[in-house]
Amino acid sequence: MNTSRPAARSIAHSVAQTASRKKSATRALAALLIAGGLLAAFTAAHAQTQTLAASAQQAAPQFGRWQSSMDAFAAADKERFPASEGVLFVGSSTIRMWKNMAQDFRDVPVVINRGFGGSTMDDCNRFVRTLVNGYKPRHVLVYAGDNDLAEGRSPQQVLESFTSFVATVRSELPDTRITYISIKPSPLRASLMPKMREANALISSYVATLPNAGYIDIHTPMLGADGSPKPELYQADRLHMTDAGYKLWHSVIAAQLQPPAPSGSPALPAGQQMATSATASR
Length: 282
Fold this sequence. Notes:
This protein is 49% helix and 9% strand. By secondary structure, the chain is of the alpha/beta class. The protein has 2 domains: 20-54; 67-277, Rossmann fold (3-Layer(aba) Sandwich), CATH 3.40.50. Strands 2-1-3-4-5 form a 5-stranded parallel β-sheet. The longest helix is centred in the N-terminal third of the chain and has 56 residues, at 4-59. The chain is globular, with a radius of gyration of 34 Å.
């Protein structure tokens, strides 16, 4: 009896089974590799998305308690975006509450009010790109600093916030004139008068070193003969101004607004300040 054929068939069957198992193992390995590759790719893509989202969140200003004010500005811009080369006022409630600003400065083609109540010089600095640079004004006037002092910041810190504000404006709008309106002597904050004077003096000295910049002393005209704030300029809260206060501000500031310079005109040299900016309040 010939047993070689069954043996050969058995060997062939074993070889086939082994080959089949190898193919199955190869397919399983390939599937694992593909799955692993997809997982790695997904993980990398997810990490990149998270990184981009975090970067975007860091780049976007976090307005916090000022969100409603910023939303109001955005809504106004959507309805009618101000023309460039205007005069922009930015700062705290003293600016925000100047309801007749556009009418008071009606000789100025474009007047933009970006005051947000309770804000500080530090806030104006943090949001300067949103509040100032996006409008490309030819002249920006900033009133802020007294709230900083009321919150415990030092005159030096007010100066630092203002210098950073100036640097950001100048980095994108090198030809824009920058004017600082001095801290007003509010009766409610009489205890802070020494710090107000110090902050005003620091900023006045700094502004004198800048080209195309000004310092407006609004502090001194608001004092009476006895050196105390004139009560008729303030509301009952002894902090915010009456119509008489704004009338005084307009008379001082209007004289300092320069007409649009002809195209190509050079910036004013450092130290060439406006009439009322010669000295800080004493």
